[in-house]
Amino acid sequence: MRTLAPPRPDAAGAADAGPVPATVPAAPGAGRTALVACGALAREVRDLAGRRGWDVDLHALPAFLHMAPPRIVAELDRLLERLRGRGGRAVVVYGDCGTAGAIDRVLARHGAERVAGPHCYEMFGGDELARLLADRPGTFLLTDWLVANFDLAVVRGLGLDRHPELREVYFAHYTGVLYLAQDPTPEREAAAARAAAYLGLPLEIWDRGLGDLEERLTELVERGPAPPGRCTETTPEFATAVGCTP
Asked: Which residues of 19-45 are buried (b: 16+ CB within 10 A; e: fewer)?
């Protein structure tokens, strides 16, 4: 597996700190499968590809694009356009991520596929998380990436370092913090506890590993491209855009 396109600075100049060691080969493999992942999932996708022995190229887009979801769509569109010139297959490791179907429309235009799911929290938490959120909608969710980047993404990302009084406004209706741990360590759990203490909320930790993401992505990569005229994505937006039957 090759890891391409090392994380870039976001618009404010802060590095996208989902640390994925990146080595860029002189000539990326034409015709190979390209995995295009959110930077917040790049480490997990890299490790899964290594364990499964996939011969793929991994491209990571900055996780901080989530601060403005239309930027995800624009950057993904540009990257997929560049990858089309190489031939091969593109598998995208994003959910809908608050884009109201815009990601799926971009994928349809480029003939790419993505792992099923609305966002990474659902991929990690599955049906159990859906039931919890139905009972406790005021739950703030953490993953390994967000635990490592809480200060950059939440405190500074929301301007709370400059306007700390806004913390009570932003989080007034939250009732707890749930850390969906992919690879729990004492250091990550301590960082999650600090994040919860900053928010003034109780912390719960679930050891989830990759949750449903591993099964979904493995099935997508290892089965090969979808047959013509039929799609495997479950979202109605994708089916409508492509004009196929799930």
From this structure: ebebeeeeebeeebbbbbbbbbbbbbb
